[in-house]
Amino acid sequence: MTRQKELDRLHKEITECEKCPLYISRKNPVPGEGSVTAKLMFVGEAPGAREDETGRPFVGRSGDFLTTLISGIGLSRSEVFITSVLKSRPPKNRTPTRSEIEACRPYLERQIEIINPQIIVLLGGVAVSSIIGPWKMAEAHGKFYKVDKCTYFITYHPAAALRFPTFKDVVKADFEILKQELR
Ligand code: URA
Question: Selecting from 3.30.9.10, 2.60.120.560, 3.40.50.2300, 3.40.470.10, what CATH number does the domain 3-182 have?
């Protein structure tokens, strides 16, 4: 089976998923989108209202900022892969629970396995703590970490950067570090 077929099959599985109660309140599951051969994968927290309506990741306000940051490093959304820890929206955008994260984890793990990106960019504390453990964002951001077979890069979630203007410059500076690594 080709990697694209494998990814399509996985995304169909996610679409039909009822492993946690979020399937009841969601309008659409949001598996993620982008290139199956992406060198860079971005992992956020969970879909928000706009993502829930469209079934596409990062298409709201924080998505616009993420898209600008991606263009800033010379790439388009279609050249990278964008997803989140949760594939369904938590009601009122509340923080994902541990059991929701555990139920969804195998999907992200399989996406990573199929795409096998060079660098996985963890956007914000939920992505960091769900995937590599509870690290202090203030100390961990802007750096690369090799854990098992994967290289991770940590930065703040675009939504945090929009909420707190000082984070915006920090995230932009982090993306410059990422850009240098990709040269
Ligand atoms: N925030 C996320 O973490 N993921 C999305 O898809 C949208 C907003």
Answer: 3.40.470.10
